[in-house]
Amino acid sequence: MLKRQLMKAAAIGALLLTSSLAxxxxxxxxxxxxxxxxxxxxxxxxxxxxxxxxxxxKGLNVDFFEALGKDLGVKIEWVELPWDSVLPxxxxxxxxxxxxPATITKARxxxxxxxxxxxxxxxxxxxxxxxxxxTKPADIAGKAVGVGKATxxxxxxxxxxxxxxxxxxxxxxVSFNDxxxxxxxxxxxxxxxxxxxxxxxxxxxxxxxxxxxxAFGKKTYFGFIGTKDDDHKALLDYIDNEIIAxxxxxxxxxxQEKWFGTTFDTPDSVPDPAF
Amino acid sequence: xxxxxFTLLLEAALSxxxxxxxxxxxxxxIAMLLSAALLSGKSVYILPARLFxxxxxxxxxxxxxxxxxxxxxxxxINVPGIVAAIIGLSLCTAAYQAENLRGGFASVPRGLIExxxxxxxxxxxxxxxxxxxxxxxxxxxxxxNEAIMILKSSSLVSVVGIIEITKMAQDLASSTxxxxxxxxxxxxxxxxxxxxxxxxGRYAERSLKGASA
Amino acid sequence: xxxxxxVIIEKLPEIGSGLFVTLWLWIAGVLGGVVAGFVVATxxxxxxxxxxxxxxxxxxxxxxxxxxxxxxxxxxxxxFVGLMLDPIPCGxxxxxxxxAAYYSEVFRAGYASVPVxxxxxxxxxxxxxxxxxxxxxxxxxxxxxxxPSINLAIILLKESAVLSIITVPxxxxxxxxxxxQQYAFLEAIFILAIVYWVIVELTDRLxxxxxxxxxxxxxxxx
Lengths: 275, 213, 222
Known about the structure:
heterotrimer; A: 275 residues; alpha/beta; D-Maltodextrin-Binding Protein, domain 2; 2 domains; five-stranded mixed sheet; globular; B: 213 residues; mainly alpha; MetI-like fold; 9 helices; transmembrane transporter activity (chain B); transmembrane (chain B)
């Protein structure tokens, strides 16, 4: 009796599965246009790309996707998640693309479709202003350093730590914001994050933090991230073209100037990342 | 801590309150179904109900929410964050409410059930008119406690993209660099809401008692 | 997405260390909470009106706010008032204080369940207050407080997953980090669910066994 019911449940499950797979076989770009909505997933603790300023979502990503949405004729619907849930949710089909942005790395290229670069992502150290014990990246050896969970910056910090005289005690925070907060308290002596991010934070918290140059990691770039399947191809092609078009007509440089206070010379694509 | 920030927290409190109340109500309905299954005397119903209660009491809500949000799509069930949050909280509270109700059902006097039997009530009628009302009245204080628990647990639903008090407090704390006033205000809002629930619960309990006397 | 348990199996030592941190924080937090909760309940019962009111308010505040918010306040707010705790001590203190609030209520109900006549009889026999507590009140309330204590311990195990948010390297933090590194998201969530579920079931069984034994002990003496 129970066995028969189980079989029945399994059959229903299989039916649901196949029907949902069939429903998925649709071009995402066409679907977004038809619905007038493009769903974009991101984490809102990654200033100046995405952050919450007194309750309002702001940043380079907001401006960029706003522009993209206008060109495409769709509204942007943001889905805000902790970073370590963003990629699983992308794979689960919760949204069409991830703003992030995410560092373009070998591992990610193997699994995801990365867009054309929108900024440089090389990793450097943020320290408390006036901390004379850290004047170059290698000075973090043997000390506690904060970094975001599930990030490429974490992977780079771990790789760099292994080359130092003494390993770094890596603290993984749910968001970089928490890591900055703990830099302020002094529980960590440094935060490792990409240059555009920490430069912005140092400027915002006027005088509290300082960036330690040079970058310790390899030269990397930020891009948006999507899945590799055929359904998403047209959308990600469109995003790539939009980035390159905005680069050519100077809109991207303007956005970089607005949010980073400087512009980056980014290549049109990163086929073979250094990390 | 400005008035504007406090207002933002209050706005976020509406989403905390909405999600929690809806989940408690749905959870209560599921808990009644679970109780009916447990009292049915048929193992086809009892075993799944027990498994359900054991699972949702045994797994942290954080993990349950991620399961519902990112694992269910594998079998074709893809729901938005708000639905995932409500499903997660409802199923979790259903398991706890069913456990509470079990105690209540156990204390319904046997004589009443037998009397209903003699009076020609069917099993379902006895459940709906005799056993359930008495069990609910007996376990009402536990239900109020559970409501407070769920309201607190809703602080975790930001993992599926919902902005409620706790997430808003986190965002504000990191943009203003003032964790103490902001988290303390968030705590205060939770405390006030929960105290209100407890007070209402006591008031309702008294009227329930009055009704039975 | 395919399910591949292999990536998780390779990381078993790391998962084991996360599990170890979860288990010892949980057990220490519960034991600390039981002791502190008992002290609070006793102080509220015998310490007079003011002590009762003050402690009662603190207990209500701890029970009326989410554990996550308490942990944020302690971890990120603490340093502003000179209380700088590392993640693990912070987690341990937070968990202990939170559980103490709940356990104090369990023991308060326990005290209330002991018939006044028994306490009065003990006093007439010339027992001191501490003798009355340890020889009459504790043994009599034991059976009453055991089931809610086990239930509470289970809730606290699950609450301890929240400590991953302040970088405590416990089970949830460890497994979800492995999941992200290996892109084994589903496997990670699955493992977490199973491990917590097993611990909770075991705790529940142990609790029921203790309950049976205690009631037999009690009624055989009577």
